[in-house]
Amino acid sequence: MDTPRASDSDTVAALLETALHDTGGESVEGAFVDHWVSNASAAINALDELFRERGFTNADAALITAAIRDPHAPAEAVTRLLIGIKRWTREIRSSLSDDPRPEIRAAVARADPSLFDPAPWLRDLADADPHTRREAIRIIRLYQSQIDDAQARLRVALDDPDPGVRAAAADAIDFYRNEPGAAALARRLEIEPEHGIRKTIQMRIADRIARESIHVGADTIEARPVRR
Predict the structure, then answer these.
(1) Which of 29, 105, 145, 189 has the CA that lies 20 to 30 A from 91?
(2) pLDDT per position as a tens digit, 145-178
(3) Is this model's pTM higher than 0.70 or not?
């Protein structure tokens, strides 16, 4: 990567400041209706155009990383920035997974579907912060068809020490005609100390029973034909 001119660095820094912290904007007249354009989104578009015109540099990556790690940067704005310039932020995603602020790690996890690299989501399942682990489960559930061992990872999350993570995993496990998932949920139902999580599992099973006439045994949850 080439080193940008000082003026370029100043421009990037100013645009990042606007993208992450400016809450203003303006109403722009359209052909049929007016629409609101935020200063933040305009800055993100300007960053993308700048990088397309003159390339993306190591200095740009350092400026973006530093701006995101600013303790005053709102997590929602971080997610918007990462998605808005995703062509470039894929290169710095791994460095942000170690951010000490759990809200930033969670913001990065929310941006990951647009960046689409499943490795960080799987790594986030072991993050020290339970909110980040829950975000990872939510995203893996959405994109599990594109992740080979998604269900296996979710079954492991059933034993997470955090009740919220276990609840998210219990809600995401595929158990219908899926022996490993059925066995994992049945086991969790037997040993789970939290009433709310047991209720989540029971409601999922009951809903499937109502729709498919599923028999729930001590160790299995399997489909049985409906008598007519």
Answers:
(1) 145
(2) 778 788 999 999 999 999 999 999 999 998 887 8
(3) no
- Look at residue 111 and tell me if it is in a domain: no
| Domain total in the chain | 1
Q: Which two tokens stand for residue 218?
A: 């001590």
Angle of helix 179-191 relative to helix 150-157, nearest 10 degrees, comes to 10
Six-digit token pair at 27?
């109403």
Domain assignment present for 127: no
Render the burial of 176-191: b for 16+ CB within 10 Å, e for the rest.
eebeebbebbbebbee
SS3 at position 178: coil
- The domain of 61 spans 1-26+36-97
Rounded distance, CA 159 to CA 116, Å?
26
* φ/ψ of residue 36, rounded to 5: -85, 130
